Each structure stands twice: as C-alpha cells, then as structure tokens.
Amino acid sequence: MTRKEKIFMALKSLSEDMTLNDLKEENTGFTTTTISNITGIGRSNVSRELNILVKEGKAIKIIGRPVRFIDRKKLEEMTELDLHRQNIFHSLAELFEKSKEKKNISKDIFQDPFEKIIGSKGSLELPIKQAKAAILYPPKGLHTLITGDTGVGKSTFAQMMYRYAIFSKIIDEKSEFIVFNCSEYAENPQLILSQLFGHAKGAFTGADRDKQGLIEKADGGIILLDEIHRLPPEGQEMLFLLMDKKIYRKLGETETYREADILIIGATTEDINSTLLKTFLRRIPMIIRLPSLSERGLSERLELIENFFKEEVNNVDVPINVYRDVLRALLLYDCQGNIGQLKGDIQLLCARGFLDYKTYNKKQIDVETPFLSEHIYSGLLNYNKNREDILNLLKYEKDYYTFNKTNGEKFIIIDNYSLSTDLYEEIIEKHNNYRKEGYSEGKINEIINDDIEKYFKELLIKCNAEKEIPEKEELFKIISPRVYNAVEISLLLAEQKLKRKFSNKAKIGLAMHISALMERIATGEVIYNDEINKIAINNPEEFKAAKLMREVLEEELEINIPKEEIGFITMFLSAVDLDEKSKKIGVIVLAHGDHTASSIADVANSLLDTDHCQSIDMPLHMKVENILEEAIEKVKNVDEGKGVLLLVDMGSLTAFSEIIFKKTNIMTNSIENVSTPLVIEAVRKSFLPEMTLSKLVEELETINPYIGRSITDDIKNKANISKPKVIFTTCITGKGAAIKIAELLENALPFVREYNLKIKPLDITSKTNIKEILRENKDEEIVAVVGTVNLHIPGVPFISMDELIIGDGIKNIERIIGGVDSHYIKKRVSEQNIFVQMLEKILVFLNPIKAYNYVNKSYIETIGILNIDNSEQLKIRYIFHVSCMIERLLQKESLPYKDIDNLIKSKKLMYEGIKNSLVNIEEAFGIKVPDTEIAYIIELLDND
C-alpha cells in the first residue's frame, strides 16, 4: 500500500463515523495532525498527500485554522448534495450554500465562463474566440491543441472550454472532464494505453480482470491529454479511430469495437511538429497558442497581481499592505516562469510578510522591499524606462496599497503553481515552538525564512518538471524526446541480442550521438574514419546488433542512416559500460566567473551519470598565476596516462595547456569557447577505450568551429594600458543592428576586459555628425570601425562585415589591440557553417539554420531578378540584415523610413523584385515585410 493510499484509508475510516449532527459543528473534519497520529506518517507528508487527494476529487478541504479534510464520497452520501467537482471551501456554510446552488443544475450554465477571465478583452481575446469556435463547431466541436510556455495556464484554459461547452449546451452538465497527464506513464507505453483505453482480462501479464479506461469514462464529455508530446506514437495511432469514427478497442480486444463520443484537447510546451506524428496533427484542426506573461500588457499584469494578493488575503484572513516599490518591481521584473511564477513569487512574499506579522503582533501583513528576491528587485531598474506607463496605470501613487478580504476576484488562467495554504499553519506552529525553546525573534525569522525558501524551490521544481521526471525534462532541453525514445527502443533490441543491460548513461550518450548525426546528415557533413570498420569486423555479435539498431532508428526517426554508421554503433556497443577501471582521458573545465566552470561541469556529470568532469572557476579578481598553479595540481590528479583535455572560455586560460605540459610532461591540450554541449560530448568521448587525446581534440573541433582565438602571448607581461581603446560598430539599419555586431565582437574577442577595450554601437540613421562623435570620445583611442558603414575617420581602419566573418577581421583587430601576432587559425568550413555560426551569435530566438536557408534563397532570387553581380561582401551584408529584420518583425517591430513613397517611385523595378523574393520568407515565418524595411534592402543593394 502506498503512502497516499494509507492516508486515504485513514480519512475514509474517520469520515465513516460522521453524522449530520457533526456537520453542524464548525470544527467538523479531520486535521493533518489527527491523520498523522493515526498513520504514523509525518504531518508535512500527510498534508502533501491530502492536497493531492483533494486535487483528484477524493477529499474535501475546508480552509480554516487549522485546515480540515473530509472524504468526499461520504459527505455527498450524507447530505445528498452534488458538490459538482468543487473540492475546496472556506467554511461549512460556504460548502452548503454552493452545494445547494448546484444540486439540480450548475450555476455555471447561466454565465459564460470566459467572461470573468483576466485578459478576455485583451491578450486572451483571440484564444477565447478560437476556443469558442472549437466548442461550437457542429456537430460536437473540433479536437484542439493548446500550446504555450510553462505557467501560461493551458490546463485551466482547457477546463474553461469544458465549462463553456456546458454553458452552450453542447455537452450535458453531467458529462465528465477527464485530465490525463501523458508524462506519468511515458516510460511504459503499454500502461499508458491501458489507462486510456482500458484492457480486457488476460491482455498482458498481470491483467487479471477487465478494466475501464478513461476514454469510456469520458464518453460524452472532454478529455485533456496534458503533456501530449509524451504520448508514444502507438498511443497517437490508437486515437485515430476514435477521432475519425468515434470507435475504439480495449487492449486485448480483437473482435468488437466500442463507441465513444469525446472531444480531445491536448496541451504541450513543445514544438508540435517535432514531437507529434503528422498524421495525428492533421486530425487536430484547431491549435490555440496562449501568450506568455511578457506578451500581456502592464494593465493585465496589474490585474493579475491584485487578484493574487486578494487570494492570499482570503487564505490568511488578514489585510495585506503592499508597498509602492514592491508593486513596481512585480510589474516590471523578468518573470520567466510566466503567470505561475508570478503567483508563486507573490505567495512567497506573503509568507515572509506573514512571519513578520506573527513575530511583531502586527494588525496587518506588510509586504516591503526587503522581502524581495534579487530577481524581483531587478524590476525596479526598469522603472525609469516605464515611468510614464506606471504612473498612468496606477493613476496616483501611495506609499502602500491595501488588499482586504473579498469574494469578487476575477478568474485567472494559470497552471498548477499553488502554494499550500498549510504553509501558513506550519509557520505559526514552528514560530510558537521555537519561541518556547527560547530562540530569539531574529533567529526564528532566519530559520523559518530558510524553510519558506526551500518549500518554494520544491514547488517550482514540481511544477516545472511535472510528475517524477525532472532528469528527463532537463535532458530534453538538449536532446529531442523523439530521438531519445528511438534510441531507447533500439537499445532494448540490442540488450536482447547481446544478453546484457545498458546503463542510462549509455542511452544518453548514444542519443546525443544520433542527435548530432541527424544534424550532420542535414548539412551533408557526415565523415567516417576507416578504423571504425576494423572494430566492427572484430566484434561480430555487436555488429549484428548494430545493423538491427540502424534499421529501428531509420524507421522511428524517418531518416536514411549511412551504412558506415553501423561501424560506429558497433564500436559504441563494444566499448560502452566497460569496467570503470579502464583508462580515460582527463577533462577539466576552466572559465572566468565565480561558478561558470563548476556549473557546466555539474550539468555534464549529472546528465552522463558520472563525476569524471573536473572544473576550476576563475573569479575576476583572482590572479592568473594562482589559477595556473591550481590547474597544474588538478592535471596531475586526474591524469590516468592518456592525457588531459582543458576546455576553456577565453583570455589567458588558452595558454595553460602548453605551460602545464612543459612543467609536468603530461600531455595536455585545450579547446576554447567552452559550452555545455561541448563539455558533455568531450566527457562522453573521453570514456571510449580507443580514444586518444589528439583524436578527441580533432573530433571536438569539427563540431565547435568559431570565429577567432584570443591573444595568449606573455600572460604575465600583458600590456599595461591606461587609455581606453574604442571600437565603433555601425549598421545601415541603425543602432539595434549595430548592437548585434557589438555582441558578435564581444563573443569573438575574449580579451576585451584585459586590454581596456570598449565596443560602442552607433546610431547613424539620424546622420550623426562624425565630428560630434569624435568630440564625445576625445579621451579614448578609437582603434577601428566595424560593420556595414565606413565612417571615414582619418587613421582609423574600417573592417567590413564580410572581412569580419570570412576574412581576417578578427586577426587584424587582435594585431591592432595587442600589437602582436595572433594565434588565430582559420579552419576550412562550409559557407553555410560560417553563416550559421555568425547568426548563432547575433540572433536571439530565431533558428539560425532555418534563417540562413530562407534568407540565402531570397538573396539568390534577388540578385537574379535584379541582375546584380554576386559578391561575398554583398551576401554577408544581405544575410546579416535580413535575418535581423525577421527577428524584428516577429517581435512586432519595424524600422521607420522617411520619404518612402518617393524611394519606391524612383526604384520601382528594384522594389518589385525584392518584394517578390521575400514572399517565401513571409510565409515561412508568418510575417509581413513592410515597405519601410524593403527600403533599407534597396539601399543595401543599391549602394554596393
């Protein structure tokens, strides 16, 4: 019996003895302490499981001091009341009042449930219109997919669609709304199908009786398939018949079909095109995207904040004063977890205020700026930029805003981020206990604040990595779930053939390899070493298994895998999971910053289930000599005879490998521009018995090309520079693009800080006077102008974008700054790779490969239509400019252009040609390129 089952049995047993007379008592119900004493389970665990039972509809929760619980079924039997899926009440009086309202017919059917939602006339207007259209479409609605980031409220929105279906009389009010989280059973496809469709007796081992599935239970209603991207392909295929013909079979049934009329709603945070079968998507005609918090206006955000504070007032029954700067910070901070995180952050603030309220016997809870976490407090830094909007929004500013108990809250579309109301009860209990033990108020506050922080972090972990799969959720940020599942299936086959088990580390390693292989196949860069085939010949059993695995992977991933890949898989099967005592290449990450290197190493070790990757953090105040000594000692400790690889970020660290070799005679090598994927790949390959240090470096460098290397000569005697050096960046489209070029330079020039170098983007669209620029920077040495516009400053070299990307631009800047020869080595890489690398540095959220493919095609069409000579310089400028333009337009931003009509009139043919060449880009990215943006492209092409 599970812990939850044991607690539920105790609650049912206690509730069984209740009578109607008991319900007249205000303290009716059973506390967590009572159930904890009966079951012997800790009170906090009892509280957690009871709240899950409430969410599942098995228990009723009555909020008070203390919180009490009753078995739902017993309560409904006793009172003959239909609670209509409401599980939480503030009192028994409220329970009876609401139950009477819903005994015969739900009050919901008299009111459009979408009307009270915050944002119904704003950011949610389109999603709500889509939802209503999906519900009302004859005869019984359209299957729907709801997409959006974590925390935007997908599951609650689906529930509102269900309520609207009842309100519209599309479905009966007694129809079920079933929620099924696909991730709970993602590791067991057979179980997921049994849960959905049910099974016949004898369908599989352990199926000793017929079982009803959720499809049967939801007949006539709606089923929400949450995290639908975790539904295996066979599960998607089994839904085809249900969606097409409203029939299905239980697992194990072969002769008869069952009927079910169900509306299916799916919810996912993932890219639906890469995680769901295309045949499945074709059966879901309505796709609704819910906006993130950043896409919703400040007025909506204020409404959300006010309602969250009102909810907390109702939880604690105490007025809450929120100080002015707290409200400003909540309005302006970067809330990446969307509405869910906003609610969680407000609950944490209220919990801290509640502790203060109890400590000092206040009449109200005060939420002040000292309670703000750093990430929320940073919102105040944005106040000046948004001052006018905030003033207009708040009308007039007071020192604090008071929230009192109310029943008039609006409904909020939000995912499950609720902080348990028992937290307040726990704060009171701990506060009283510590006070009895003689702790000072300051010490009590410190202890309980730590508890609040831990509680909140656990909550966020639960909400962000739902249902016991946090490791996979983190992994799926790097590897596609589709690839991982395909590899898992193929390795199961290999286990049967080879009669051996493969570790989780082996699955992850092979999945990462296949993921990288798919990218190489897409770019035509698949290269194999002849030694792989020799290994295959010497391992006949692994070779047979590898052939079968290739077939499975091809079928599951719908790709053609070169036959030479069989050799690599053979090598993988023969080498992976060997005795841990076999010698490995040492791997050490070195990076500037207090925690940069250790954080990257922790991720690699965690994902690969090892502690092999070592790290050295280099705080900016630390001397290079001290870090070098630490690196020498660490190399001595980790070397197993095969050498040590140093993965470094920038600056003087790049020279360490050569110095360490001279001092220790241990083979060391280094690779710059360290990144988390690079470290993971390095650690994975360092375990392979056949791997050598030089071969590892060669293989990693082919997947980690970059623009340039830093100056490493004479670490201890670097130039003593007092006068700041300045590089100006320019672009024809203005400062925004110039900032992108500046960011590109900062990534390519890791010695910026060491050489007192400043990179300044300029806005030249306003025809700024060059003399004015020079006057403003008279105390600084201007060493170069980089970008697409030459300012013609006497004595200052101009480095164009084409020289920067495919020429010696970085090398020349290194020479200008340091006055020494550079160690920059340009590798032979494909043109596409060069551009993709460039775009990776300058694009914020656009896929660089997709951007390059479409923009490059547009460029070829443009120069063909306009009969313009192709040149590297022109191509670089065009791809850089148009890619940045796409990002601008996706963010609903575009550049202004004066006298646009005259330009179009004078360049009519060029205008038409460019407009035609941009059609594919508009369709691919769902944008409309305005004439003002086309004007800049005309200038770019006309000025060449």
UniProtKB/TrEMBL annotation:
In this chain the PTS EIIA type-4 domain maps to: 584-715
Q: Does the keyword Glycoprotein apply?
A: no
Q: Where is each PRD domain found?
A: 478-583, 846-944
Q: Which GO terms describe its biological process?
A: phosphoenolpyruvate-dependent sugar phosphotransferase system; regulation of DNA-templated transcription
Tell me where in this chain the Sigma-54 factor interaction domain is found. Answer: 117-351
Recorded protein name is Sigma 54-interacting transcriptional regulator
User: Pfam families annotated for this entry?
Assistant: EIIA-man (PF03610), PRD (PF00874), Sigma54_activat (PF00158)
What organism does this protein naturally occur in? Anaerosalibacter massiliensis
Q: One GO MF term, please? A: kinase activity
- What InterPro entries would the database entry show? AAA+_ATPase (IPR003593), P-loop_NTPase (IPR027417), PRD (IPR011608), PRD_sf (IPR036634), PTS_EIIA_man-typ (IPR004701), PTS_EIIA_man-typ_sf (IPR036662), PTS_IIA_man (IPR033887), Sigma_54_int (IPR002078)
Per the record, its GO cellular-component terms are:
membrane
Q: Which CDD domains match?
A: AAA (cd00009), PTS_IIA_man (cd00006)
